[in-house]
């Protein structure tokens, strides 16, 4: 595998999951792969889990790691082609990217949707330039439309916790005060659609996701109905996808918060969220603190998904 930006890059999903369990059982067995290899992680946005888990995964593989927060100490980057750079941007992405490529063997990029231009976001304008101009393998640490390292970790977690072969998995929208990307939800849908799980997406009207990601999932506008018999509840907020309200927050309706009364409708479902989570907006304290909440093991599996992806990239160098 050279680049990793979506589920299609991982190849056979069953085999990738098997590899995840092998890596998890002995995560220091592949130190030779990363010896004298350098990972540079570029962050255009904040992170706790992705930064720590990906660095840990790289160290498990024996790699050297450099982390750069573009907004803290680097030059302000121009990303548009053809502009006269007489404003506050000091350097162009078209120089910065190949320069970054000079100092490393693998590049991880976090660059969220900017909500300035839907086409730019959905064409993955930033990460695709890293792929084009860095000369290095590039992997997504959440780009504009997807967060594949998260979705892979989510799938590993579901496989670990599921009690039936084909669990009912429900992706539910939940309220949040600020506009968030669709990336986590898109990506979760894209990965779950590669399984044979019973997959339902529930959200208020107006929050329809891009049909390319919804795929064959059933969409149910009644959240309570969606929860009935669920084995996993995966909560996430996202802002509007459809025009003319792309990137907007239409409502912060707390009747969509995941609470104990709704969880009681499920088949004693596990509660999942990628984190960071706003308590008592997305989910009540009671649910996230309950025995059914698996948000911490889910976060722990980020180290494993990152290690499988880095291992596959290193094996291809
Ligand atoms: C980001 C998002 O929703 O895409 C990152 C989640 C992993 N969340 C926030 O910005 C709160
Ligand atoms: N889940 C996740 O990607 O968390 P961070 O934004 O903290 O990296």
Describe the structure.
This protein has 317 residues and is an alpha/beta fold. It folds into two domains: 7-146 and 302-316, Rossmann fold (3-Layer(aba) Sandwich); 150-299, 3-Layer(aba) Sandwich (Rossmann fold). Helix content is 35%, strand content 15%. It is built from twelve helices and eleven strands. The protein has a five-stranded parallel β-sheet with strand order 9-8-7-10-11. The radius of gyration is 20 Å and the shape is globular. The model has no long low-confidence stretch (mean pLDDT 98). The structure holds N-acetyl-L-norvaline and phosphoric acid mono(formamide)ester. Residues 47-50, 142, 150, 274-276 line the site of phosphoric acid mono(formamide)ester.
Structure characteristics:
Rossmann fold; binds phosphoric acid mono(formamide)ester; binds N-acetyl-L-norvaline; 5-stranded parallel beta sheet; 317 residues; alpha/beta; 2 domains; single chain; 12 helices; 4-stranded parallel beta sheet; 11 strands
SS elements, strand count: 11
Order of helices and strands: HEHEEEHEHHEHEHEHEHEHEHH
Which range best describes the helical content: under 10%, 10-25%, 25-40%, 40-55%, 55-70% or over 70%?
25-40%
CATH top level class name of the largest domain: Alpha Beta
Name the CATH homologous superfamily of the largest domain.
Answer: Aspartate/ornithine carbamoyltransferase
Question: Structural class, please?
Answer: alpha/beta
Taking the sheet with the most strands, its summary is: 5 strands, parallel
Strand fraction equals 5-15%
Count of structural domains: 2
Parts with pLDDT < 50 across at least 5 consecutive residues: none
CATH topology of the largest domain: Rossmann fold
Strand ordering within the main sheet: 9-8-7-10-11
CATH architecture of the largest domain: 3-Layer(aba) Sandwich
The Rg value, from CA coordinates, equals 20 Å
Global morphology? globular
Q: Termini distance?
A: 9 Å
């Amino acid at each position: 595998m050279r680049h990793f930006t979506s589920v299609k890059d991982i190849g056979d999903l069953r085999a990738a999951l098997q590899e995840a369990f092998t890596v998890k059982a002995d995560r220091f067995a592949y130190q030779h792969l990363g010896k004298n290899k350098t990972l540079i992680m570029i962050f255009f946005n904040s992170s706790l889990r992705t930064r720590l888990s990906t660095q840990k995964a790289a160290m498990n593989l024996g790699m050297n790691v450099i982390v750069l927060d573009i907004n803290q100490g680097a030059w302000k980057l121009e990303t548009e082609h053809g502009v006269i750079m007489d404003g506050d941007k000091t350097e162009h992405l078209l120089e910065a990217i190949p320069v970054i490529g000079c100092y490393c063997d693998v590049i991880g990029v976090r660059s969220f949707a900017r909500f300035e231009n839907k086409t730019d976001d959905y064409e993955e304008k930033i990460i695709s330039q890293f792929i084009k101009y860095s000369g290095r393998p590039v992997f997504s640490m959440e780009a504009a439309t997807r967060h594949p390292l998260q979705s892979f970790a989510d799938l590993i977690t579901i496989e670990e916790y599921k009690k039936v072969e084909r669990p009912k998995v429900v992706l539910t929208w939940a309220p949040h005060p600020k506009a968030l990307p669709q990336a986590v939800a898109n990506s979760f849908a894209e990965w779950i659609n590669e399984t044979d799980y019973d997959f339902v997406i529930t959200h208020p009207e107006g929050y329809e996701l891009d049909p390319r990601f919804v795929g064959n999932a059933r969409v149910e506008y009644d959240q309570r109905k969606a929860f009935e018999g669920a084995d996993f509840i995966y909560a996430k907020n996202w802002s509007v996808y459809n025009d003319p309200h792309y990137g907007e927050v239409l409502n912060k309706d707390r009747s969509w918060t995941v609470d104990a009364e709704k969880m009681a409708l499920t088949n004693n479902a596990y509660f999942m969220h990628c984190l960071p989570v706003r308590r008592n907006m997305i989910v009540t304290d009671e649910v996230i603190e309950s025995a059914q909440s698996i948000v911490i093991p889910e976060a722990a599996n980020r180290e494993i998904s990152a290690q499988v992806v880095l291992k596959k990239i290193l094996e291809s160098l």
